[in-house]
Amino acid sequence: METTANSLPEGFWGTMMPYAIIVVLLIIATVACYLPLRSRPLKNIAAVGIPILIMAAAFIEISLFSKLGKNVVWWCDLDKVGFFSAFFRLFPFVLMLALQFHSFFAYQNFIFGPQMLNDPQASISLKPKAKGFWWLLLVVVLAGVADKIGLKGDLLNLVIGIAFMGVLFMIVGWRNFERFGLGWGAAVTFFAVVYIIGFLLASYGFLMALIKVFWQMLIWTAFAIVGWIAFSKTPEEIAYEKKRRKEEQEQEWRRELSRRSSSGS
User: Fold this and answer.
1) Among 227, 198, 261, 206, which Cα is nearest to 89's?
2) What confidence tens digit (pLDDT) does each residue in 220-242 have?
3) Is the domain of 90 the same as that of 212?
4) In sequence order, what E strands does the chain have?
5) By the 8 A CB rule, do 60 and 21 touch?
6) Distance CA 244, CA 249 (A)
7) CA 135 to the chain's CA centroid
8) In this predicted structure, what is the pLDDT of residue 4?
């Protein structure tokens, strides 16, 4: 499926359905975090199912960006849907972003509960290790060098992608490995990395939509201001108009006095 700046995407990805699915998944995940589940089997199912729902929403976001690129916010293209339609479609996007942000912390509360208040280790770490950013920078630099010297292709992109994700996985997961061990630490970190990527992409998409809508608003406001300035009168013109009206009233008053004097005589 190909999309251009001047054409709407076709098929499933060109509808509001992916966005609606994301919202539904996040609502279910967030509501599930607050259900009073007393049965241990149900809690275990929820403990696995909730992050799967959150990751599913993130994977849809990743797929949207990979398939549509900048067209991911086609639904707020003012030329195609109009200003008011685009403006009101921002509100579900805000809901989606708020749900996605909150869902992670709601899940942490579901898993650890009151333990989070007393034990700093009772949490899923999203904080990357500062030194690891140098490794990320190295991967980015090597990718740039490879592009400059003409090394391209799917295999190279795959290797760079795996290297980038591997370094990101390690610098985010080092605290999780310490807290939960290698196996659970890897699973928790995978969830955290997918969540971060999905949330960042959603935030970027929302920013693009916001700029599109409010940029148009700024243009309209600028035209309105220019028009008002162009067709409104300056203070000097207003003062002159007042003076002219006053002189006309005085002349009319004199003429009226003159008529009365003539009729009296």
Assistant:
1) 206
2) 677 667 766 666 656 666 666 77
3) yes
4) none
5) yes
6) 9
7) 28
8) 47
* CA-based torsion, 86, 88, 94, 100: positive or negative: negative
User: 191 lies in which domain range?
Assistant: 12-230
Domains identified in the chain, total number: 2
Which tokens go with 64? 């949207």
154-231 and 83-112 are packed helices; what angle lies between their axes, rounded to 10 degrees? 130
Spell out the residues 6+ positions from residue 114 whose beta carbon is closer than 8 angstroms to its own: none
The number of beta carbons lying within 10 Å of the beta carbon of residue 25 is 23
243: tokens are: 């003076």
124 falls within a domain: yes
Helix (H), strand (E) at residue 137: helix 132-148
Verify that 151 and 248 share a domain, yes or no.
no
Model confidence pLDDT, tens digit, residues 111-138: 887 665 566 666 777 666 555 555 666 6
**Residue 6 belongs to a domain:** no
SS3 141: helix
